[in-house]
Amino acid sequence: MAVEIHNDSPVPLVWATDELESGDWTDPWYPSRASPIAPGATAEWRAEGDLFIEPTSGTEGRVRYNIDGDPTRQLYVHFNSPLIESQYGNTFHVWAPPGFEVAHSGGQGHHGRLVVRLRQTARRQVAGFTPSVNGFQFSNRWNAGLPAMAVGFLWNRLLDELGGEAADVLDIARVDDGWLPITQARAGMCGGMTFGAMDYFAAGKLPPATTTSPDSESDPLFQFIRDRLLDSFDITGSGHRWLGYSSPLYPNGDEGVVQVAGLARGRSWVTYRDEWPRIRDDIDAGRLSPLGLIQTDSLDIGENHQVLAYAYEQSGQEVKLWVYDNNYPRQDDLHLKFDITDTTGEVHVQRLGSYRADEPRIWCIFRTNGYNPHTPPDGRPLPPPAPTPAEMSPADVISALGGIGVDFSVSETDLRDWLGNPEHTPYPAISQALLSHGWKLKAPVFLDVIVWNYEHTPGVVSPRRSEDVNPDILKAAVLEGSNVRNGTEFTDFAQLLAP
Asked: How far is residue 112's CA from residue 228's CA, in Å, rounded to a whole number?
């Protein structure tokens, strides 16, 4: 087992401890010799199983690094490459403290190479995608009289792909093809709207501006979303997961996992170990990531839902995942929060932002497969991109900020200097973030106060790019600045905005 440590954080990693439960360190590749790891540097260490003519063991061990030499903040790497692999293959637990995010990939096989990457926590998102702009402007509610396929039809096709052995173990039987029409309000066409939003974004267009869903079967947009709904279930691929993960017999944690039809891990392992890394990799690569939300354990797949992930922030083991949810049009604050530390129990996901309190429980999250872009109908052209502070003179930035209700209390000379220095001050990044959201404030707020509030939020890294600006922290910074300056006691950022 070879392990590469990529230190993409701004501070060094200093070896603290290492231990082996089986096998030996491979000379001369000792963890203690791969220290310190400077910012931007990569180090490697290796371990191997015991050998007596043939291998007699696998290798398992733990290595800890002090982040910036601080023993209270550690990067922890646990690896286990057994002689005889289980259904989980080689397994790894790689953790970082709050304020940092760590990701790992690879490491499978008897000659595995695990790649570990440590970064400072920041919001990471698909550039150019905002739900209120790039999502459909209407909600996922439809005229129940519109003709479309039914859940029963999908159920039976998915069951065919699942296979008889798995169906028997999970106690899944066939139903009538016409059972539960998908267009009834309870079920909706969320998968079609998710794939459809991806299609408009891929085509460089915006969805139609209509705020009501199509109500005619001859409407090209209805036909398109209906067809994309069927595509989203990936019937001939891995769509059978909709049934498998919805079964009351499918396990939540790692114990007693069903060993049929590829359904080999519990819901928490699927969500935290298998699917979250795929979602993260999509967003890091600038791709939107379509998600399936399992919202039932009673095989009522019409209760499940599909959304679109476009941004995330990971601090330690806590993940925040921002989504376009077609049940909530024009909402940019919707996100899911979960902790990826433990896979022995149930999945625990919080819905945050403008979600209603009565939303159903999420039993499992997975990235849906089978997306290929299609040409959507009647798209609107994208608005021209807002100029960035780097493309505008400081005077133009100050003028544009004034137009949305952001002024300043420092000297204009100092402010112009800061706005012209994106490498060493957060002013250009925060200014661009303020302008990009399209906010207009009822009462003015000082830019320098907003920046001070943002930078003095515990655990926050001073941003140098607009995409590193956390919108929730930015809203809180503006809210605090507005309340202090204007003598108000608002608790909701929306109360600051002009209609």
From this structure: 39
Cα diameter, the chain: 79
Neighbours of 84 (CB within 10 A): 5
Class of residue 465 by CB neighbours under 10 A (exposed 0-12, middle 13-18, buried 19+): middle
Question: Quick check: bond before 36 cis, omega within 30?
Answer: yes
Tokens of 175: 């139903």
Residue pair 306/327 in contact (Cβ under 8 Å)? The answer is: no
> What pLDDT score was predicted for residue 389?
59
Omega of the bond leading into 28 within 30 degrees of 0 (cis): yes
The answer, as to whether pTM is greater than 0.70, is yes
CB 449 within 8 A of CB 485: yes
Strands of the 24-25 sheet, one edge to the other: 24-25, 42-48, 2-7, 113-120, 100-106
Residue-wise pLDDT tens digits, 235-285: 888 888 998 899 888 889 876 566 555 556 889 999 999 999 999 999 999
- Tokens 């806590």 belong to 318
CA nearest 119: which of 96, 141, 150, 138? 96
For the chain, the residue count is 499
Hey, what amino acid is at 340? I
If one compares 239 and 289, the residue with the highest pLDDT of the two is: 289
Average pLDDT, the chain: 90
Three-state secondary structure call for residue 310 = strand
Question: 175 phi and psi, to 5 degrees?
Answer: -130, 175
The C-alpha angle 383, 384, 388, rounded to 5 degrees, equals 130
Provide the angle, in degrees to the nearest 10, between the axes of the packed helices 427-436 and 412-419: 90
Sign of CA dihedral 319, 474, 385, 332: positive
Residue 89: CB partners within 8 Å, gap ≥ 6?
Answer: 108
Neighbours of 133 (CB within 10 A): 16
Cα separation, 34 vs 390, in Å, equals 39
E strands, 100-228, where?
A: 100-106, 113-120, 124-125, 205-206
Q: How many helices and strands in the chain, by DSSP H and E?
A: 13, 22
Q: Dig out the tokens for 308 from the structure.
A: 């679109």
**Calpha distance 310→127 (Å, rounded):** 9
Looking up tokens 């499940």 gives 304
